Amino acid sequence: MAIFRWQGIEGGEHCGAEVEAGSREEVMQQLLARGIILLGVEEVQESGEEGVEQAAAAEKPYKARKIKSRELMIFSKKFATMVEAGLPILKTLHMLVDQAENKHFRQVISQILRTVEAGSTLSDAFSAHPQVFDTIYINLLRAGEESGKLTLFLKRLVVHIEKTEKIRSKVKGALIYPIVLMTVAFCVILVMMIKVVPVFQKLFSSMGHDLPVPTQMIIAVSEFVRNPAKGGTVAVAVVLVVMGFRYLVKHNINLRRKLHAKALQLPIFGEVIKMSVLSKIAMVEGNLSAAGVPVLESLDIIASIVSNLIYKEALIQVKQGISEGKNLSELYAGHKVFPATFSQMIAVGEETGNMDEMFAAIAHYYEEEFDMVVERLTEMLEPIMIVFMGITVGFIIVAMYMPIFQIGSVISGGK
């Protein structure tokens, strides 16, 4: 017989105790028979090869590749649904291992299962894989365990991932159409310069007439593109400049700060960035506040997930002000990157004491604003790209046919 310490959720409340039993499986069967949602069972004094192997497994977490947010969202949805249906945690994890299509994610879930079977808490098992589950995920999971409201916080996680994915997909959706048009236009122009223009050039050379200026321009560009010593060199130079610029942006914080500041000033594009960042800040801060995470720690977490350096530095300054005893709303109001609406709504939350609800309202407000800005961006970019493509291709075609039009007019005039 051995002593085992268990943790679980019974009747919506977090509970735990120590029991004497012959094996871990026996403890699990007893608890499951009582209808307890089991979070972990740990032998107080582990011994034998099994304990050594489990400890080794816990010490060396599987380093998975980056898991797509959609896969994480599907996993979280299934997890929340199964737990809400009353399935034991271990059985749920077993089922999720079998259902995982991504082999790397399957390895992660399998190791989480083994760690929980070894007696670890659910949040500790998840936290061993920071490359898959971020700080927000772990904090909400831990809050669910400690409060006995695991299902509630799993649902919050699902909503958080869904909204984050929605923001990302909307930005991609707004940009993908103009990018496709730009790519098609570039390919069409390149084919015309390499294949079509030389045919016209041979035809014009046999005419013995001076070519119009637009035609000469297009032929000169075509010759330049087809010449490896010229067009090839320029192409290589462009690639090197782009790579060098990306390297400088990555390693030069002053340059990155200037670019991020300029990005916020761009018409419509800057609004998209602002609305997406503000909705993310409010959504994450609301979830962490509901999870009982201290404000200072919440601001640290939010600053780590915000990519824009201007907002990141503003959040760090807000954190410093909080540590000095200042109000959150006043600190947000002191930074131009946070609109007056943002700080005023937080001030209302501070006065009423309903910060969780107010952050949810702020997130909803800026999500709607974000949707409208993205819609405006899409409406603006589509016609601009179509007009650009039409003018560019049309100019090339007209320039190539101008000598033929001139010859036709000369012939008709001679008659």
Comma- or semicolon-separated keywords:
three-stranded antiparallel beta sheet; mainly alpha; Receptor-associated Protein; 3 strands; 415 residues
Describe the structure.
- The structure is a single chain.
- This protein has a 3-stranded antiparallel beta sheet with strand order 2-1-3.
- It starts with a strand and ends with a helix.
- The chain has 2 domains: 48-133, no CATH class; 161-400, Type II secretion system (T2SS), domain F (Receptor-associated Protein), CATH 1.20.81.
- Helix content is 76%, strand content 6%.
- The chain has helices at 24-33, 48-59, 69-84, 89-99, 103-117, 122-127, 135-147, 150-205, 213-226, 228-251, 253-265, 269-290, 295-305, 309-323, 328-333, 340-352, 355-414; strands spanning 2-10, 13-21, 37-43.
- A hairpin with a 2-residue loop joins strand 1 (2-10) and strand 2.
- The chain is built from 17 helices and 3 strands.
- It is elongated.
- It is mostly helical.
CATH superfamily of the largest domain: Type II secretion system (T2SS), domain F
How many helices? The count is 17
The percent of residues in helical segments reads over 70%
Strand content: 5-15%
Structural domain count: 2
Largest sheet: 3 strands, antiparallel
Summed over residues and divided by their number, the pLDDT gives a mean of 82
The largest sheet has its strands arranged as: 2-1-3
The CATH architecture of the largest domain comes to Up-down Bundle
Low-confidence stretches: 46-59
Structural class: mainly alpha
Approximate shape: elongated
Q: Give me the strand/helix succession.
A: EEHEHHHHHHHHHHHHHHHH
Query: How many β strands by DSSP?
Result: 3
What's the CATH class of the largest domain, please? Mainly Alpha
CATH topology title of the largest domain: Receptor-associated Protein
- Could you tell me the radius of gyration in angstroms? 31 Å
Measured between the Cα atoms of the first and last residue, the distance is 116 Å
